[in-house]
Amino acid sequence: GYPLQADLLAMSQIWRAKAGTGFVIAAKGAPEAIADLCHLPIKDLEKIRRHVAALAADGLRVLAVAEGAFTGSAWPRSQHEFDFGFVGLLGLADPLRPEVPEAVAACMDAGIRIVMITGDHPATAQAIARQAGISAEATLTGKEMADLDDAGFRERLSRTNVFARIMPEQKLRLVQAFSSEGEVVAMTGDGVNDAPSLKAAHIGVAMGGRGTDVAREAASLVLLDDNFASLVTAVRLGRRIDDNLRKAIGYILAVHVPIAGLSLIPVLFGWPLVLGPVHVVFLELIIDPVSSIVFEAEPEEQDVMSRPPRKPDAPLFDAALLLRGLIQGAVVMIAALGIFRLGILQAHSEEVARCMAFITLVIGNLGLVLTNRSMTSSAIRVLTRPNRALAIVIVATLVALGLAVSTPWLRGLFGFGVLDATQFSMAASVAVGSVLVNDATGIISRRLRAGLFAP
Q1: Edge-to-edge strand order for the sheet containing 186-189?
Q2: Quick one: pLDDT at residue 453?
Q3: What is the pLDDT of residue 19?
Q4: Which of 2, 171, 236, 371 has the highest count of CB atoms within 10 angstroms of its CB?
């Protein structure tokens, strides 16, 4: 047979005729290539073009078929040397999955550009692109692409979302061109010829069902269900994981500021000690499960798929996150130190003051969990968002705190004094106040970032 070639999008197979000694030649391929092989007159070419345009406008993949005969002994080097007769056109329907338009719209809302690269007729590609919700006003064909210099190609690349009649090596050029523009490129494919472009993309995605072994080996990810919507789910999950990591990092930083401050400041100023090893162990028993379980279980933010992607070189731990954690931790530290000094002055007992400061610190740390649960909503609003792990941690912490301040032998272990109702209320109120201050600070910072206070 004669395989598909870059300059002739048609292939031919040869069979021995049932009768006689001749051979039957069958060709299939792009309608314009088959028409060229058949050397049709202009009148017939125009008729075929009209039929192709009508079929392609309905989103059908159009193939042309031709038939020829050969009786010689020396095979021609080119398909053009056969005497082909045009047989007809085939319109193949490959409808989009129902979820594809919604998935494409979700990607666009998330700032992800969707580009269609296909070997189909331009009209077919445009029709399918419109069905999927991809802008198809500008279309670039493989032939046009081959004729463009680098400057012209980059210019067309920036405003073209549909590429038709593309050869495998041109897919690789497209991936490399998008990458050179600083884009993070994810490429989907399923055939052997897709392997180079899958390998060159930052994220090669192969189809697990209909994909070839070569494509799966070259890809970074394999979609087991061959469903484009699964990519949107992966992006959503990735953004949720990124958000939750940042929340956990912010919380870990914030919660250690008051612990370090309450351990060092009394020593520097010659005050009675606020925290000892047992207090730090108690606090770490809260911090570890919160950072590893609670934030991992946090649901996604409402705007997770309506914000642009973060820059590839953006650090996970940046200056804004550092400043936010330091401020939040400092607020809790000041609240705990303030209630400690107040307890010393009013009760004249470091045990009572230590107990009051510890209550403020523990409740304030739980407040830090709430203020770091969301980067877009207030601590009070996120209380309506379910998180079973958080509920367990809060209940367990409050029960343990209650036992530590009410059980005599635990009070002795922690170095606590007996509190009256007023002292307990003061400690809890100051802790709640620190939560409200941190929440208000977060609201103000979010509004400043959103430009609501801009003149």
Answers
A1: 186-189, 203-207, 221-223
A2: 46
A3: 67
A4: 371
Which two tokens mark 130?
């419109």
Separation CA 292–CA 298 (nearest Å): 11
* Burial (Cβ within 10 Å: 0-12, 13-18, ≥19) of residue 401: middle
Contact by Cβ (8 Å): 118, 87: no
pLDDT at 454: 43
Q: Specify which residues 164 forms β-bridges with.
A: 141
What does the pLDDT read at residue 444? 82
- For residues 127 and 59, is the Cβ–Cβ distance under 8 A? yes
Cα three-residue angle 178-201-171, rounded to 5 degrees: 65
Beta bridge partners of 16: 23
- For residue 215, give both structure tokens: 């494509």
Are 63 and 92 contacting, i.e. CB atoms less than 8 angstroms apart?
A: yes
Q: Looking at this protein, which amino acid is placed at residue 344?
A: I
Question: Model's pTM, two decimal places?
Answer: 0.81
* Cα separation of the two ends of the chain: 73
Q: Is 274 helix (H, G, I), strand (E, B) or coil?
A: coil
Which position has the token pair 């090669």? 204
Strand partners, 83: 69
Phi-psi region of 271 (alpha: psi -120 to 50; beta: other; left: phi over 0): beta
Question: Residue 360: CB partners within 8 Å, gap ≥ 6?
Answer: 332, 335, 336, 339, 427, 428, 430, 431, 434
Residues of the chain with pLDDT under 70: 19-21, 449-455
What are 141's two structure tokens?
């064909």
Whole-angstrom distance, CA of residue 318 vs CA of residue 312:
13
How far CA 292 is from CA of 204, 256, 296, in Å, comes to 31, 15, 6
Instruction: Tokens for 252, please give them.
Output: 């870990």
Q: Report the distance separating Cα 77 and Cα 192, nearest Å.
A: 26
Report which residue type is found at 311. K
Buried residues in 310-325 as b, exposed as e (16+ CB within 10 A): eeeeeeeeeeebeebb
Angle ∠(342,347,352) on CA atoms, nearest 5:
85
- Please give the backbone phi and psi of residue 263, each rounded to the nearest 5 degrees, phi first: -85, -35
Torsions phi, psi for 117 (to 5 deg): -125, 120
Question: Beta-carbon neighbour count of residue 385 at 10 Å?
Answer: 14
At 65, list the tokens. 């078929």
SS3 state at 304: coil
Q: Which amino acid is at 21?
A: T
